[in-house]
Fold this sequence. Notes:
The complex is a heterodimer.
Chain A: H1 3-24, H2 29-52, H3 60-76, H4 81-87, H5 97-126, H6 131-150, E1 161-162, H7 170-197, H8 199-209, H9 211-216, H10 221-247, E2 249-250, H11 252-256, H12 262-273, H13 280-298, H14 303-317, H15 321-329, H16 340-352
Antiparallel strand pairs in A: 1-2
Chain B: E1 3-14, E2 17-28, E3 32-36, H1 43-51, E4 58-63, E5 66-67, H2 73-79, E6 81-83, H3 96-101, H4 120-132, H5 148-161, E7 166-170, H6 178-193, E8 198-202, H7 206-212, E9 215-220, E10 223-228, H8 230-235, H9 237-244, H10 248-253
Parallel strand pairs in B: 3-8, 3-9, 6-7, 7-8
Antiparallel strand pairs in B: 1-2, 1-4, 4-5, 9-10
Helix pairs in contact in B: 4-5
Amino acid sequence: MSLSQQKFLLYAGLLLAGILAPFVFPNFTFQITVLWVMILFALTWDILGGQMGYNSLGNIFFFGAGMYVCAIVQIGLYYDVAQYTVSSGAVKVEFTPEQYFTGLFLGIIAAALSSVVFAIIFGWVVFGLRGPYFAIGTLGFTLAAGELVGAWEYVGGGGGIALPIFPGEPDDRALFFYTLSFIPAICTFAFLRWLYSGRFGLAANAIRDDEEKAEGMGIHTMRYKTTGWAIAAFFLGISGAVFGNMIGFIEPLEVAFPTVTFGIFMVIMCLLGGKGTLWGPVVGATLFHAFKEVTWTYLLGWQWVALGALIIILVVFFQQGIMGWAQDKWPERFGIIVEGADTADAADQKAAQ
Amino acid sequence: MTEMVEVRGVSKAYGGVLANDSVSLDVPEGRVTGLIGPNGSGKTTLFNSIVGYHPIDEGSIKFKGEEISDMHVQEIARLGLLRTFQQTRIYSKMNCVDNMLISAPHRTETFRSMFRAYPHDLTEKAESLLEFVGLYAKRRLISGDLSFGQQKLLEFAMALMNEPKMLLLDEPTAGINPTLINGLIDRLHHAATELGVTLFVIEHNMPVIMNLADNIYCLANGKLLAHGSPEEIKKDERVINAYLGAHFEADDKD
């Protein structure tokens, strides 16, 4: 069996497992749904953090922005948003199934596109910063965004918004949101796999390894950075829109802009799996999610301590991550080889000349 | 003979230090021009000024008749004016072929071409240039794992991949062993004569630069001290006093 056949079988098997998972483990549908969200988080963080070496602590901004834009579209299509948020809970608001699905569909599209616009503006502000300044700059921007939304009464301020209720049975609802989390994650992976295989992947890596050199060689560094950031924002916007509706109630600090939970998890997952690789974020997200679910169940009360310990171990002893470690261990499997026969040939040719 | 680069009255100060003091020089097209001078005489500063790494305080720099002193590094690079570094700079976590591919010219790049895969002939070109510098067998290795000398050769190959009109080389032979140096000189000659790349070279290795360059400028204390053919420079009293030292003639004879 050739390598490409093996790869095809691997992808087909994983895709099938993803489709069958909620039917085989119906009790874990919610956990597996969140796993797909986590995989999307890790993959999109890695575009800048891993491939380009720009460690952002503010990517979660696009998640929250997408969530709020989607909510405003869903509600605003049929009601006055300000009245809706003020009367939240006091007045019963009805959405017909048609209104619900139309609103959600248009909301997701608006979330994705507006996140791209935010990324272009946000990037224009922060891409002058390098290294730790970039990390802190993006973190500050996102914290500020959360606070500002919390003070914005139109979208319910700190009290949040209750989103339209899914018109159907709880089991159908779970499967519906499973699908809406699964498909974007798969699309992100497929898109990035294609993206990294061409010019974009190499330019991103060049910026990571030596941005000044890349500038000196004429690479359009700003264009690549903004584009990478916008791609991450696009998928995160979709993810935020879906996640907000799955939770059903959104508010700025814990759900939409959770900088110290999801915002940090993105980074840890990439570090664990191996940043700057295609599979690293996927592997890291899966292991991290499992670790988190296990500690949150069996070590309750100590779960944050366990998480902190994991972070320290990763940062101190295992910086290259699982994929990085595998590449060090089996370099030839990653195509890192000296061609012995060729060396001899070259020597012969030299001698002949 | 047309001038590739015309530097007129360029001054650049760092804090209180005047690194370049009203320097004027010409680099003729299709030739090899040398730049020598003691450490701290402002050679690298002049290189940085030409390729736009920092703004200059005074003066004018023209590339093929176009004023470039207020342009950005990337724009200048895309015009075809490129430099290599004294401390070699490559993309150290990528393999050699990828280092070469990403160095292909970005002159005509559009938003859409950012997403394209590399055409096959570009890979072939990258591999033939790696062959040219003797790194073909190691082309799949991570470039940061190569020896310093090999990294230097890779950086030179990357610069050629960019199809520059002119290349500024900052001490190309520093840190390279003597046998490799001869090979490197041949390759520099090849680049100048066969590929038509104008070279402007900073070098401390006198036999190398005397052999390589058609004409040489000497800087001292940020000022232009002398200009002439290698023979003239060797005999120039001011250059001998400031830089070469009286024993240079004796060294050169053996």
